[in-house]
Here is the input.
Amino acid sequence: MENLLANQVALVTGASSGIGYGVAKSLAKAGAAVVLNYHSHPESAEQLADEIQQHGGSAFAVQADVSDPSQVEKMFAACRSRFESVDIVVANSGLQKDSAFADMSLEDWQTVLATNLTGQFLTAQSAVREFRRRGHRGNSNALGKIICMSSVHEVIPWGGHVNYAASKGGIQMFMKSLAQEVAPERIRVNSIAPGAIRTPINKDAWDTETALKKLLQLIPYGRVGEAEDIGNAAVWLASDESDYVVGTTLFVDGGMTLYPGFADNG
Ligand code: BGC
Here is the structure.
């Protein structure tokens, strides 16, 4: 997949850890210049930017809270001033604030919705405006590509996580409605729905033998995913190799959405 994204600029929100970090790395490996957004941990985003540059690529890190419209605008302004524009936008920032439903605070509900859903709204809106402003750049069949980071929980209900599941269920219709609206302009909008990927967000689910055994019962393919699995999917979805893929959710989950509990007659 080397050079599949040459001469293109990618912005990845939430790129300082987990899936965002892995996606940024993969996009850079495929030849894109990468803008790494972080919220509160500059060190790892800056270190990844340095690493990309040492390998001959282009990258820089930019701070922004994606739930704040003015900070999102500034983030896009930074893309323009450094790289002229942006071609691929991965709206990835997301967080979990888990609790039993009756104990969930309004703050935890709102914080999760603000980053996971409103954050993607603001990021995608700025992306569409930027694609329109600069017009076709001749480096892709599309005017621009937006990848929304969803989750298997856009379809799998998740007790104890109603805020998170609601945000990802929202992403499903947000992505499809936006894809339908902007496809005539050749803007491609799609989602990736990761299953259990080995990242800090779900450490409790894989870092002990007992937890891992329980988790693997939910994954027919028999292994926990790696950020690189999502990175590879993102490279494809961002490239012209997927030019006819519009408004689709790509599940990258080792079969987690296949109702594994029914593998043996239910
Ligand atoms: C969540 C993880 C979880 C995975 C599968 C993801 O969207 O962020 O915590 O392990 O879904 O349940």
User: Anything to note?
Assistant: Residues 188 and 226 are 25 Å apart (CA to CA).
